[in-house]
């Protein structure tokens, strides 16, 4: 029997991702590259992780999609970048895709998530987010990809959020300050950094507006 009248319990509408961020679906992104200049250095890896809501309306990481990328013709690779990332461009099991194909491999699940949540488009979440967005936009322009689901310039940056919440701006230190696990041996892969950034973003957002990011 359904209770009615003034003593009936209030029905509280569950939050949705379509309304939580003004119609944008937050999608965590990390790229590994051949250098720091998106105008000339190659995109080598990309991982994306759309975020979801659990039954309590809390933000949680969703499924990860990733791709290794064949350096686009005309782009450069700084050997020092490969020393940091540990990427072996010529590894026989790397299974790298041409840039346009790699982009579609990660864009397709993002578009599906945007549609499933009734959002208008994705918004990139990243650590130093404009670095990732600039490389993403450069690859989209180079490859002529026409179905980029991401907002072209707006982002959520966990550097800023972690600086406010924990006083830390380096990803490893911010993750640890948040009480989350960090494995330095796995860092600097697109998938690992995406997963840790997603955990960090979710923890900070879920603590708002209580102001207790330590919770």
TrEMBL record:
<keyword id="KW-0378">Hydrolase</keyword>
<dbReference type="GO" id="GO:0005829">
    <property type="term" value="C:cytosol"/>
</dbReference>
<dbReference type="GO" id="GO:0045004">
    <property type="term" value="P:DNA replication proofreading"/>
</dbReference>
<dbReference type="GO" id="GO:0003676">
    <property type="term" value="F:nucleic acid binding"/>
</dbReference>
<keyword id="KW-0269">Exonuclease</keyword>
<dbReference type="GO" id="GO:0016896">
    <property type="term" value="F:RNA exonuclease activity, producing 5'-phosphomonoesters"/>
</dbReference>
<dbReference type="GO" id="GO:0000287">
    <property type="term" value="F:magnesium ion binding"/>
</dbReference>
<feature type="domain" description="Exonuclease">
    <location>
        <begin position="25"/>
        <end position="210"/>
    </location>
</feature>
<feature type="site" description="Important for substrate binding and specificity">
    <location>
        <position position="153"/>
    </location>
</feature>
<feature type="site" description="Important for substrate binding and specificity">
    <location>
        <position position="36"/>
    </location>
</feature>
<feature type="binding site">
    <location>
        <position position="32"/>
    </location>
    <ligand>
        <name>Mg(2+) 2</name>
    </ligand>
</feature>
<feature type="binding site">
    <location>
        <position position="30"/>
    </location>
    <ligand>
        <name>Mg(2+) 1</name>
    </ligand>
</feature>
<comment type="similarity">
    <text>Belongs to the RNase T family.</text>
</comment>
<dbReference type="GO" id="GO:0008408">
    <property type="term" value="F:3'-5' exonuclease activity"/>
</dbReference>
<dbReference type="GO" id="GO:0008033">
    <property type="term" value="P:tRNA processing"/>
</dbReference>
<dbReference type="Pfam" id="PF00929">
    <property type="entry name" value="RNase_T"/>
</dbReference>
<keyword id="KW-0819">tRNA processing</keyword>
<dbReference type="InterPro" id="IPR012337">
    <property type="entry name" value="RNaseH-like_sf"/>
</dbReference>
<protein>
    <recommendedName>
        <fullName>Ribonuclease T</fullName>
        <ecNumber>3.1.13.-</ecNumber>
    </recommendedName>
</protein>
<feature type="site" description="Important for substrate binding and specificity">
    <location>
        <position position="131"/>
    </location>
</feature>
<keyword id="KW-0479">Metal-binding</keyword>
<keyword id="KW-0540">Nuclease</keyword>
<feature type="binding site">
    <location>
        <position position="193"/>
    </location>
    <ligand>
        <name>Mg(2+) 2</name>
    </ligand>
</feature>
<dbReference type="InterPro" id="IPR036397">
    <property type="entry name" value="RNaseH_sf"/>
</dbReference>
<comment type="subunit">
    <text>Homodimer.</text>
</comment>
<dbReference type="InterPro" id="IPR013520">
    <property type="entry name" value="Ribonucl_H"/>
</dbReference>
<dbReference type="InterPro" id="IPR005987">
    <property type="entry name" value="RNase_T"/>
</dbReference>
<feature type="active site" description="Proton donor/acceptor">
    <location>
        <position position="188"/>
    </location>
</feature>
<comment type="function">
    <text>Trims short 3' overhangs of a variety of RNA species, leaving a one or two nucleotide 3' overhang. Responsible for the end-turnover of tRNA: specifically removes the terminal AMP residue from uncharged tRNA (tRNA-C-C-A). Also appears to be involved in tRNA biosynthesis.</text>
</comment>
<feature type="binding site">
    <location>
        <position position="188"/>
    </location>
    <ligand>
        <name>Mg(2+) 2</name>
    </ligand>
</feature>
<keyword id="KW-0460">Magnesium</keyword>
<feature type="binding site">
    <location>
        <position position="30"/>
    </location>
    <ligand>
        <name>Mg(2+) 2</name>
    </ligand>
</feature>
